[in-house]
Structure formats: C-alpha cells, structure tokens
Specification:
The chain has 188 residues and is α/β, with parallel strands linked by helices. Helix content is 28%, strand content 18%. The chain has six helices and nine strands; from the N terminus they run αββαβαβαβαββαββ. The protein has a five-stranded mixed β-sheet. A four-stranded mixed β-sheet has the order 7-2-1-8, sandwiched between helices. A hairpin with a 4-residue loop joins strand 1 and strand 2. Helix 1 crosses helix 5.
C-alpha cells in the first residue's frame, strides 16, 4: 500500500515502531477505538492495564490480520469448531479458543482459553501485518467508562500515555460479539 492509497501509512509505521518499543497505541476497530500493545511484552501489557485502570487478571483479546497469525497461539486446526470460526473471519467476531501451551498467563488471564479475532478492519489488518503478529485489542477507555471513538477522545482520556492512529471506525454500533468456540455460547 502506497502513501497515496493510504494517507495514514506514516501513522501506522509510527504505531508499529511504538509496538516494537513496548509502548501502548490506540487505533480504530470495527466499532470503537482499541488500545493495543505487543501481547508478549509483559511490560507493555502492564501499561495497558495501568492506563485503563483494569485488573491484570481479566485477560486480553488479541486481534490478528490473518488466520495464519494465530495458529501458534490457539487450538483451531482440526477442531470441531474450526469451520464455524473460519466462516466468520476475517470479520467482527471474537472467538474464545483453547490456548496452546507456552502462552503467557498475562495474556489469557490465567485461563486455558484465549479471546482472539481476525479483523476485517483495514487499519487493524495493516497494523498486524506490519507488526508481523497479533496485537492486544481492548477498548480504549478507563474501566467502566464508555470507549473512545476518536483520537480527540483518546487524548482527553489518556493524555500522552498512548500513541493514537487516526482513522475511521468500522460500521458496528457496539463492540464485536464474543463466542466460546467449545460451547457455542455467546458471551457478549
């Protein structure tokens, strides 16, 4: 994608640089702005929980650019739920899937599952593609407050604690559905 095709390319490149440096970014998703970081950098994950004022045992949602980006983290291939999950991706459905061994507890909140989504949002796709792996995706808000829907709101709430990537939100009116793959239960 060239600068002419995507006027936000410099912002995405800066955001990826910040992700690699262990910083927290804010970026547009399907419905609201999300806060993100490198999920495998404990210090970065701590920063997300700190800026949100959220307990670390809550676990996180990860977002990816492709199904291939998630294979190392969750049980999907050959599972009874694989067809349903793949039919919804890329798209606005977050699935709770069994986590593979070796995934740090701070990502799963100590659970044996991980919430993950392969997004169709072009900015999320570009961020994760350039970063080369999934990133954290949690709503950009203080705990129990409404999520931000613009960089202006991000600055008002978080001041200079996060780098905001300007862009358009997707067309969802509320955050993505979350479904437990093993039970089929809709959690949100």
């Amino acid at each position: 994608m060239t600068q002419a095709q995507n006027p936000y390319l410099n912002s995405i490149e800066l955001a990826v640089k910040r992700l690699r440096e262990g910083e927290v970014i804010a970026y547009p998703t399907e419905a609201v702005y999300g806060l993100g970081c490198d999920p495998f950098n404990f210090s970065a994950v701590e920063k997300v929980f700190h800026v949100k004022r959220r307990p670390i045992d809550k676990g996180l949602i990860l977002v990816a650019a492709s199904v291939e980006q998630i294979f190392d983290y969750v049980e999907l291939q050959g599972m009874s739920w694989e067809k349903d999950v793949l039919a919804s991706w890329p798209g606005p459905v977050t699935w709770v899937l069994p986590v593979k061994e070796g995934i740090p507890e701070w990502i799963s909140g100590g659970r044996k599952t991980l919430a993950i989504r392969v997004s169709a949002h072009p900015m999320v796709q570009e961020l994760c593609s350039q970063f080369g792996k999934p990133i954290v995706s949690t709503s950009a808000n203080l705990t129990s407050q409404p999520p931000a829907k613009s960089c202006d709101e991000i600055v008002q709430v978080f001041e200079d604690q996060v780098f905001c990537v300007p862009g358009e939100l997707g067309n969802l009116s509320k955050p993505t559905r979350i479904i437990d793959a093993q039970s089929g239960t809709v959690l949100r």
